[in-house]
């Protein structure tokens, strides 16, 4: 019999390969951005076939959602077409081939995918799956792992996102905030169909972001995905109606404070856990009932992650948009 799951995997991998080759050969940067979004969507589909729905959700939100929007804002600084210079093409090819071979060699020592005798399957996974229901009691074990068992790692990821925002804004010289009164590099609000459709979709996108934020305990989702989706709605509004209206709703000084506040909220949960007699990020001591304490801690830290991610993504878009307006002031008239 035909294994349809295997056929789907092969088809998706083939499409990923074709898309990657097309991206490497193209000189039209706008087309490359569009193909990059398609690559992210195909990657999300592949993760779904591997039953990694949470990872697929993140890839769809980041790779096929907000990344193309950020790349579009960067295109205003670079121009649409690649120049004809390929003086470093051979060096780049050799570097990519060597890196690829190193990665392939590195996978030879890894256990086979789904191997029940691997350390992850025989020790870590068993512990999480068997004890998660009793200790945390939420349906989505992925949330239990990321927000509780691996709370230290997730806290580090939130700090990395905040640090990335500080780094990007510092490199662009915009820590004092984007230039007020600028316009989006792609202003599409004059088109009646786009304006009407966006006016209907943006509130639904924001509502869906809140659903993903507070439904991560019961299904795929959480602070990372919700933050990206929320930011995508604000960025879409900015691209359609201009930067100034978006900045009146999401003011850059407030966003900078919120980006830091999200990380502070996450870390404060760990401090409160220690003051309550537990260890850092041990949510069990936050309530008389350890399970209720776990629920409370996860909700609060996921909210902090969502606030930081959303604020960071919007700030980065505002930074690139304001920089492109300064470089091309004729586009904001």
Automatic annotation (TrEMBL):
It is a multi-pass membrane protein. Residues 14-79 form the MrpA C-terminal/MbhD domain. Its main location: membrane. The chain crosses the membrane at residues 6-24, 29-50, 56-77, 89-108, 155-175, 196-214, 226-243, 255-276, 296-320. Residues 117-180 form the MrpA C-terminal/MbhE domain. Keywords: Cell membrane, Membrane, Transmembrane, Transmembrane helix. One of its GO terms (cellular component) is plasma membrane. It is found in: Cell membrane. The keyword Cell membrane applies. It comes from the Bacteria. Pfam families: MbhD, MbhE, MnhB. The keyword Membrane applies. Residues 193-314 form the Na+/H+ antiporter MnhB subunit-related protein domain. Belongs to the CPA3 antiporters (TC 2.A.63) subunit B family. PANTHER family: NA(+)/H(+) ANTIPORTER SUBUNIT B (PTHR33932), NA(+)_H(+) ANTIPORTER SUBUNIT B (PTHR33932:SF4). This is Multisubunit sodium/proton antiporter MrpB subunit. It comes from Chromatocurvus halotolerans.
């Amino acid at each position: 019999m035909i294994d349809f799951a295997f056929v789907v995997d092969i088809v998706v991998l083939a499409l990923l390969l074709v898309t990657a080759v097309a991206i490497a050969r193209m000189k039209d940067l706008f087309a490359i951005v569009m193909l990059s979004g398609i690559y992210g969507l195909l990657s999300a589909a592949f993760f779904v076939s591997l039953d990694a729905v949470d990872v697929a959700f993140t890839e769809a939100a980041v790779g096929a959602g907000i990344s193309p929007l950020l790349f579009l804002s960067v295109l205003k600084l670079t121009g649409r077409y690649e120049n004809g210079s390929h003086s470093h093409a051979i060096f780049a090819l050799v570097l990519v081939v060597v890196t690829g071979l190193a990665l392939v060699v590195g996978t030879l020592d890894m256990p086979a995918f789904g191997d029940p005798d691997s350390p992850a399957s025989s020790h870590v996974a068993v512990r999480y799956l068997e004890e998660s229901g009793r200790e945390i009691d939420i349906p989505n074990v992925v949330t239990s792992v990321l927000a509780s068992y691996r709370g230290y790692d997730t806290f580090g990821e939130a700090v990395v996102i905040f640090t990335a925002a500080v780094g990007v804004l510092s490199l662009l010289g915009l820590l004092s905030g984007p230039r007020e009164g600028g316009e989006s590099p792609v202003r599409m609000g004059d088109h009646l169909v786009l304006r009407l459709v966006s006016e209907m979709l943006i509130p639904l996108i924001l509502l869906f972001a809140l659903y993903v934020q507070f439904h991560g305990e019961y299904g795929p989702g959480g602070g990372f995905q919700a933050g990206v989706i929320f930011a995508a709605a604000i960025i879409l509004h900015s691209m359609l109606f201009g930067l100034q209206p978006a900045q009146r709703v999401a003011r850059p000084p407030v966003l900078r404070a919120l980006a830091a506040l999200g990380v502070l909220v996450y870390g404060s949960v760990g401090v409160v856990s220690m003051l309550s007699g537990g260890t850092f990020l041990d949510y069990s001591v936050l309530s008389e009932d350890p399970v209720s304490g776990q629920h409370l801690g996860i909700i609060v830290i996921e909210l902090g992650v969502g606030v930081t991610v959303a604020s960071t993504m919007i700030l980065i878009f505002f930074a690139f948009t304001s920089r492109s307006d300064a470089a091309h002031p004729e586009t904001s008239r």
